[in-house]
Amino acid sequence: MSLLNTKQIMEIIPHRQPFLLIDTIEEMEVGVRAVGKKCVTYNEPFFAGHFPGEPVMPGVLIIEALAQVGAVAILAKDENKGKLAFFAAINNAKFKGKVLPGDVLRLETQIVKVKGPIGVGNGKAYVGDKLVAQAELTFAIGAADK
Q1: What are the tens digits of pLDDT across the range 52-94?
Q2: Active site residues
Q3: What CATH topology corresponds to 6-143?
Q4: DSSP labels for the chain?
């Protein structure tokens, strides 16, 4: 049983299809960490061009999925509700394996530092027990322009 389903995730972060890259949140300590899942299907729009005949989930989208999981954790805090989390930096990104149609991507993001509106998270993505990607994610919390 998931902690948050897709509809509940969309109440916290503004991402929508086809750019919402997480299906569920399995665990969360608000403001501290979250674990999400993405069930990767052959119907993902990026597979049409990445790569025809050899579908592989783009690494940058795995990093974005890790950031979305971190955004759920940080934007679920009462003082951040209704705000946005913007990328400020991506450091030490490493890709250690392919993510293919049929894989279930487990996305773990730990918020390691927050100072004012700026924070840093460490993200790790797994398929089964295999680490497939990791990165340090710097974000800035800002108000949504309306």
Answers
A1: 999 999 999 999 999 999 999 999 999 999 999 999 999 999 9
A2: 50
A3: Thiol Ester Dehydrase; Chain A (3.10.129)
A4: --SB-HHHHHTTS---TTT----EEEEEETTTEEEEEEE--TT-GGGGTS-TTS----HHHHHHHHHHHHHHHHHTSGGGTTEEEEEEEEEEEEE-S---TT-EEEEEEEEEEEETTEEEEEEEEEETTEEEEEEEEEEEEEEPP-
